[in-house]
Design a protein that fits this description.
Elements (H helix, E strand, L loop, with lengths): L13 H15 L1 E3 L16 E3 L7 H11 L2 E3 L14 H6 L4 H12 L7 E2 L14 E3 L5 H4 L2 H14 L10 E4 L3 H13 L6 E5 L9 E3 L13 E5 L6 E2 L2 E13 L4 E5 L3 E4 L15 H4 L3 H4 L16 E3 H10 L4 H30 L11 E3 L1 E9 L5 E7 L7 E7 L2 E6 L1 H18 L10 H8 L16 E5 L4 H4 L4 H12 L10 H10 L11 H14 L13 H15 L5 H19 L4 H4 L3 H16 L4 E4 L2 E4 L24
Parallel strand pairs: 1-19, 2-3, 2-4, 4-5, 5-15
Antiparallel strand pairs: 6-9, 7-8, 7-9, 10-11, 11-12, 11-13, 11-16, 12-20, 13-14, 16-17, 18-19, 21-22
Helix pairs in contact: 2-12, 11-15, 15-16, 15-18, 15-19, 16-17, 17-18, 18-19
The chain binds adenosine-5'-diphosphate.
Adenosine-5'-diphosphate binds next to β7, β16 and β17.
Pfam family, one: TTL
Protein name: Tubulin polyglutamylase TTLL11
InterPro entries: TTL/TTLL_fam (IPR004344)
């Protein structure tokens, strides 16, 4: 879809020149910048501190919160390793074999208490260099994990495993790799006289850039080295006042292991600016009708900036929910469905994040109590269908936290104006996130007396602690863990991947790691049908096929490729009615063998695996009743099919019983 302001089509050679000229114009533009200045800094040394030097456009809302909280803003933190002069000979002596870890430890001990408690980056985890302690507001690898193709692939995989649970994401194809599959599906739809529309989005695009609608795959315009996602276009969105809209839901991933998810009760609603019509040849190019992006619609003459709750092109989610309630929709049900979409999506992406986290923070174990931990605010774009059913469009790793908007008062003259709607939503979100992740023991700011005593200075700026807005509600584990824990199958696969990866800090599994995996899980034992050679061939084949995913990274099999290998082996080795059944059986089998192999005594290694698996079955039988077992190869398993899907027993963790020693 063409930029509505551009008089040329994207294929027109003048398009690039127009874009460059516009970019230059914006660069030179006189900008009247909206800005929140830093407040007076607390002199209390124990006040919580936050590094805002990398916060960029988020700094305004952060400053508003910091002023309320009485926390310290550090705009130019000294790199942590320059902090103090203490020598570290003792550590070097003790940890000489762990060169890398030693360095990290040295850096930590060198701290003189002046480092920040929180680091607020604008995009990536790695922006805050040299951080070795404190909380960082980005997870390593999040941007890559939620990128359109990657997210689509992960949700597709979950759909294969749990078709009924993961039906909230439009069917997608990754182009150019899956172009022939895309053509096949489109042809079949055409044969059934179904009029389909597809939306094409560049993988790395944002703010609606480069998006267009097509009716047939032949209209897809491929461009060199660019990857796209083709997606089923939702042609029946719910409309308000005739306009298409979508929600930006804010979610805080407070911790990955254990998983902790919060949802913000207030969100944004973004409206299109031209009344919606069913897509036809004539209106396919109307960006203001089909795309809800603020960055596009703000250029429309119909765009309405207003402080009122009930109209305007950007409104609070609660005001739209009130309107939907008046229209007779069950808004509580819609909200519950949205929460479920959020939890299921994070359950799907968490295993890959865990792999990235381990690779980026290999020493986290050694500095567990004072090392780095992460949290992140995510933006979920959710569209409602005409019946109120939510559809997940995308997850933004870096949702805009600006509280101003850009207004082009004349060509080349931009003004940044304060936006009350944005502040109403984002200020409580940021404030509550800060309160959630800050060190608990220091969350209450000292009263003036103790602050004065502590710092030795006259404390001019001590405020009573802000209690927050109560806008975040925990949806996992508090609300949904019992319902959705059975979906965390990829998490168990990630544990096996990490266990066999070999090199700490690596993201990809080499051929040795893959062999270790086969050995630890006893996949090559006699009678299983897998020889070392056949597994080697599988490894080489998959590695080649998955090379295109993050080609810039080191060679080897990444986590997604490993999952494919795992599923292939599961299908052959543990055939079942569904892929889920095969994978669950293989996970049980692999976990049992890994645990067995990790026992230090050689004696235990030669214990027949059967005894152990049988013991597990006995234990499960006592919990879930007898006669629910079946035999596959030389192992025994609980027969999951006998339980209704929602009541399937979670496999007992192997830790729940000890090995029988001879
Ligand atoms: P971007 O990251 O560029 O904003 P999105 O995936 O959010 O890309 O898509 C931009 C807009 O296009 C969305 O806000 C939504 O209005 C519309 N859109 C995207 N995908 C679909 C879809 N499958 N069906 C209907 N509308 C869609």
């Amino acid at each position: 879809m063409q930029n509505p302001l551009c008089p040329f089509k994207p294929t027109d050679f003048r398009y690039a020149a127009w874009k460059a000229e516009r970019k230059a114009l914006r660069f030179r533009a006189k900008k009247n910048r909206f800005r929140v200045e830093p407040g007076p800094q607390p002199k209390n040394r124990s006040a919580i501190s936050i590094d805002t030097s990398k916060a960029k456009s988020t700094v305004d809302v952060l400053r508003l919160c910091l002023k309320d909280l009485g926390w310290r803003e550090d705009q130019n933190p000294v790199p942590q390793h320059y902090r103090s002069e203490h020598s570290m000979h003792m550590h070097q002596l003790f940890l000489i074999g762990y060169y890398f870890i030693v360095l990290k430890s040295i850096q930590w001990v060198k701290r003189d208490g002046g480092t920040c408690d929180l680091y607020w980056n604008s995009v990536h985890f790695t922006e805050a260099e040299d951080v070795i302690a404190g909380k960082v507001n980005k997870f390593p690898g999040m941007v890559e994990v939620v990128r359109k193709i990657n997210l689509g692939r992960t949700l597709d995989l979950m759909h294969r495993l749990y078709p009924e649970e993961y039906d909230f994401h439009p069917q997608s194809w990754f182009l150019p790799q899956q172009f022939s599959e895309f053509c096949d599906v489109a042809r079949r739809a055409h044969e059934r006289r179904l009029k389909q529309v597809y939306i094409i989005k560049p993988d790395e695009g944002s703010q609606g850039e480069g998006i267009y609608l097509i009716q047939e795959p032949k209209d897809f315009i491929s461009s060199n080295n660019k990857r796209y996602i083709a997606q089923q276009y939702i042609t029946n969105p719910l409309l308000l006042e005739g306009l298409k809209f979508d929600f930006r839901i804010y979610v805080v991933l407070a911790s990955l292991d254990p998983l902790e998810i919060y949802i913000c009760k207030e969100g944004l609603t973004r409206f299109c600016t031209i009344p919606y019509q069913h897509p036809t040849n004539k209106n396919l190019g109307e960006a203001y009708m089909h795309l809800t992006n603020y960055s596009l619609n703000k250029h429309s003459i119909n765009y309405l900036h207003t402080e009122s709750e009930e109209d305007g092109s950007k409104r609070t989610m609660s005001s739209v929910f009130k309107q939907l309630d008046r229209m007779g929709f069950d808004v509580q049900q819609i909200w519950d469905d949205i929460e479920e979409v959020v939890v299921k999506t994070i359950i799907a992406i968490a295993p890959e994040l865990k792999v990235e986290y381990r690779a980026e923070l290999p020493t986290y174990k050694y500095v567990a109590n004072f090392g780095i931990s992460c949290f992140q605010i995510l933006g979920f774009d959710i569209l409602l269908q005409a019946d109120g059913k939510p559809v997940l469009l995308e997850v933004n790793a870096n949702p805009s936290l600006r509280i101003d908007f850009e207004h082009e008062v004349a060509p080349g003259i931009l003004e940044h104006i304060h936006s009350p709607v944005d502040e109403e939503i984002k200020r409580p979100l940021v404030m509550d996130t800060l309160l959630l992740v800050a060190p608990r023991t220091r969350i209450v700011i000292d009263d003036p007396k103790s602050a004065t005593h502590d710092s030795g200075d006259e404390c001019e700026y001590v405020r009573p602690p802000h209690r927050g807005f109560g806008t975040l509600s925990q949806i996992y584990p508090r609300k949904y863990s019992t319902d959705f824990d059975w979906l965390r199958i990829l998490d168990r696969t990630a544990n096996i991947f990490l266990d066999c990866l070999g090199v700490r800090g690596a993201l990809r599994m080499g051929s040795t790691g893959f062999r270790t995996f086969a050995r630890k899980c006893c996949l090559t034992t006699s009678g299983t049908g897998f020889s070392n050679a056949s597994l080697d061939i599988m490894y080489i084949d998959l590695q080649r096929r998955w090379e295109h995913v993050s080609p810039q990274r080191t060679s080897g099999l990444g986590f997604q490729g490993f999952i494919e290998a795992f599923f292939l082996i599961a299908k052959k080795r543990f055939p079942g009615d569904t892929i889920l059944e095969s994978v669950e059986n293989m996970l049980d089998y692999s976990e049992a063998n890994i645990e067995l192999n990790s026992c230090d005594s050689k004696k235990e290694l030669i214990l027949p695996k059967l005894t152990r698996t049988e013991k597990k079955v006995e234990e499960m039988k006592s919990v879930y009743g007898s006669n629910n077992r079946k035999t596959i190869g030389n192992a025994y398993f609980i027969d999951y099919k006998r339980f209704p899907v929602e009541k399937r027993p979670r496999p007992l963790r192997m830790k729940s019983f000890s090995l029988q020693k001879e």
